[in-house]
Amino acid sequence: MKQLPFVSLLLLALANMHPTKGHGQAGSADTSISRDDTKFVQTLIDNASPGDTVHLPGDRVYRIRTIHLRQGVSLRSNGMIKQLPPHVAEDFTWAKQYSDYPLFYGHNVKDIHISFREAHTYGEAVRLDSCERITIHHAKAIGDSTKLLSFAGFYIHQSRAIHIDHVEVAGYGMKRRSPDYYQRGTGIRIQTCQQIRIRGSHIHDNAENGIFLHSCSDVAIHGNDIHRNGMSGVQVAFGSMGVERDYRITRNKLFENAADAIDINNPEASRTVAINAYIAENISKGNGWVNGTETRDGSGIATLVGLKQVLVKGNRSEQSNRPAVYIRECDGVNVIDNKSDNFAEIVGRQGQIRLVKNTFTGLRVLRDLRAEKLQLDSNHIGYLALHNDIQVDSLVFIGNNLKGNINFHLEGSLVFKDNLLSSRSPRGAISLRKVNEAILSGNEITADTAVDALTIHGEASNVVVEANTILSTAACIRDEGAPELKVVGNTFARSPGNAPAPAFVSRSPNALLLKDNIYPQHEGIEAPRLIVIEQEGSVTMDSVARALL
Hints:
Blueprint: H1 5-15, H2 38-47, E1 53-56, E2 61-64, E3 67-68, E4 74-83, E5 104-107, E6 110-120, E7 126-129, E8 132-142, E9 154-157, E10 160-170, E11 188-191, E12 194-199, E13 202-204, E14 211-214, E15 217-222, E16 225-227, E17 234-237, E18 245-250, E19 253-255, E20 262-265, E21 273-280, E22 283-285, E23 289-290, E24 293-294, E25 302-305, E26 307-313, E27 316-318, E28 325-328, E29 331-336, E30 339-340, E31 344-347, E32 349-356, E33 359-365, E34 370-377, E35 380-386, E36 390-398, E37 401-403, E38 406-417, E39 420-423, E40 430-435, E41 437-441, E42 444-447, E43 454-460, E44 463-466, E45 469-472, E46 477-479, E47 486-488, E48 491-494, E49 504-506, E50 512-515, E51 518-520, E52 531-533, E53 539-541, E54 546-548
Parallel strand pairs: 1-4, 2-4, 3-5, 4-6, 5-7, 6-8, 7-9, 8-10, 9-11, 10-12, 10-13, 11-14, 12-15, 13-16, 14-17, 15-18, 16-19, 17-20, 18-21, 19-22, 20-25, 21-26, 22-27, 25-28, 26-29, 27-30, 28-31, 29-32, 31-33, 32-34, 33-35, 34-36, 35-37, 36-38, 37-39, 38-40, 38-41, 39-42, 40-43, 41-44, ...
Antiparallel strand pairs: 23-24
């Protein structure tokens, strides 16, 4: 791109035709509100050739209404720009989402670089429609923060190959006042576009979302500071065609936005969109609040609805009011190595969901869950809330560190293997109420209350409990008549300093198998029966119960 020397000289000549007041900073060079530089700047652009750059020097304030961009002609302003107010007042509406008075307007143009030191605008700072290969870089756009229904700072429509690099967009719309409703005014609003890149930018204090994308594909949002916006930091919305593909949202800081950190929400319940999204290494803090009051939203890491093929990896979140990760109606979602001081929550119909090496305060699986497979590997989860009547073809827990009571009441199969579970709950460690088949193997289970550690109810079918170490104050296992229960090769132990109690209790055995288990030895006092059968039933067991020394 070549510099255009005569353009700067011409502009200086034109500028000298207008009165100025004093010298120094560009913002104070001229305080006249009657001057209109639109025609002069537009003439420079219209007289330039493709490949030229129009340069506005930094020794004055430029007062402009709307500049129409030309193909191949770039613009760089080192001076302050103050947009003149529109002739007719206008507001954002759903029927009219863009202004008729943007500062810079491009329609069906290509190959342009736009840079401006600082611009104060009434409409959008930049509006692009059907454009291609446009770069907006090192630009600062300030909106009207008193406006209730503001247009966006940047509005980009039906365009491709748009790069937004190291910009600041702030003050588009009035600051959100209520946790129950919000005003209009988005930092960057992009609709029906492809190949969007937003990086290294500061998008803050706008009335609605920091970045809003609708019906877009091939989007990368990287290394931005997105703070104190009136809705989500980043929101991805969906059209009717399911064209949304290939999103990378990485290494952003998302602080104190009034809704979610990242919201990717496909509301069409009849289909999931294979979005191929990568959400990684973002840092989030304090989302979902307005003046200290919770809003309805506020996920710390991401809200995911109606999606396929999503990887959420290595994000950090704290002090947000809603679940760190909220997943509804999804498939092929992998949540790996994230940390948060809040819950993860899984809701509705799911395909395959996998959580690996995360640290969450808890996990909530709500009653309406219908899933093919839910797998948890090597997570640290403070509290696990599994509501009754969930339906999961395969529920798998492997190598997790878990706290509190876990209540399993589901249609489907359960694998609970190599987990470390400790509970001080008055309900014990595990309540296996209903399951079609289950294997509990290789776990270390501790229940530090006067309640049985593992209770297996009559609706739990085809259960195998093998090679676990169970430490309990009361019974290690209580069988409430589960059919064909197999308890094999476990080590039962007594919590120190507690009165002796049976290690295994069966209320009414139903084809029960007890084999190769190791039971606690009681010294110095009368030992209780290690196995107690309370009612008649069928049971097969060792002829001699081995003692744990």
